[in-house]
């Protein structure tokens, strides 16, 4: 249900954008069967101006999701297949020497695949750290540097990086500090039986889906600005901060002595301040996507797992007991709510 927009938002524009966002999910549903949660979380990340790291086995439509979104949003799309021999200049671009019409030669910058609105970094853990760092720098700064010249990337700019959970031999896992640059970590699961049957029916027939453009880059940037204007009460901001702090084994003087036992026993490293920032931004984006102008506790809870699961590092004892970071996030939410 659409609520009344706060003074910072134009009511007519607000209602218009909410209608557009509803249309996006309908159009994506023409191609992507199921995966409603992943589709929504990807949209939330775009609205919040973040980037996503996606984990899933091959064949779960990760590439198809991003390419479909780019068509529906009328954005340019590039896919980069990360391999062990990929160099930074292969993704950022490089200067090449070209002969001009008058016979002289000069260097011309040829843009790499990062110069697109939506970039799929496929199997990011299969390329060396130097190339990974070049991608992460572009994600953070929204620009690339070649030689002495800096080039701005097109806005909006969104990176979806994928990792394959199998066949880890010869890979270059992203360090935890670099994973922290991603707003969401999305786990793509296998489809349900009925969904998989529908996938077979759609993909083995001659029929072709025609997608309609619902939004454009300017409207997405406007929506990103409106997300920042969504209101959040002080007690909800505190709740988001407490979720992040609850996962730490070292909280400083104010939090000393109140660390839960499950954190002491199973957490090697907790989330930093960026977690609370993304919890709040993700919650604002979710409230906006659902037509609300105020963040609720439910919005924080809905984005807690994708925001925190890659920022909480479990220890050996947890791994031995089969306890994952998702389990820790669930217990963190329960503990914080019980102590309020």
Layout: helices, strands, pairs:
Blueprint: H1 11-29, H2 36-48, E1 52-55, H3 62-72, E2 77-81, H4 88-92, E3 93-99, E4 105-111, E5 118-122, H5 129-141, E6 143-146, E7 149-152, E8 158-163, H6 176-179, E9 184-187, H7 193-203, H8 217-229, H9 234-246, H10 261-266, E10 267-269, H11 273-289, H12 297-308, E11 313-314, H13 316-320, H14 325-339
Parallel strand pairs: 1-8, 1-9, 2-5, 5-8
Antiparallel strand pairs: 3-4, 6-7, 10-11
Describe this structure in words.
By secondary structure, the chain is α/β, with parallel strands linked by helices. It has two domains: 11-221, Rossmann fold; 231-339, Magnesium chelatase subunit I, C-Terminal domain (Helicase, Ruva Protein, domain 3, Orthogonal Bundle). The chain contains 14 helices and eleven strands. It has helices spanning 11-29, 36-48, 62-72, 88-92, 129-141, 176-179, 193-203, 217-229, 234-246, 261-266, 273-289, 297-308, 316-320, 325-339; strands at 52-55, 77-81, 93-99, 105-111, 118-122, 143-146, 149-152, 158-163, 184-187, 267-269, 313-314. It has a five-stranded parallel β-sheet. It has a two-stranded antiparallel ribbon with strand order 3-4. Strands 6-7 form a two-stranded antiparallel ribbon. Helix 2 (36-48) crosses helix 11 (273-289), helix 9 (234-246) crosses helix 11 and helix 9 packs parallel to helix 12 (297-308).
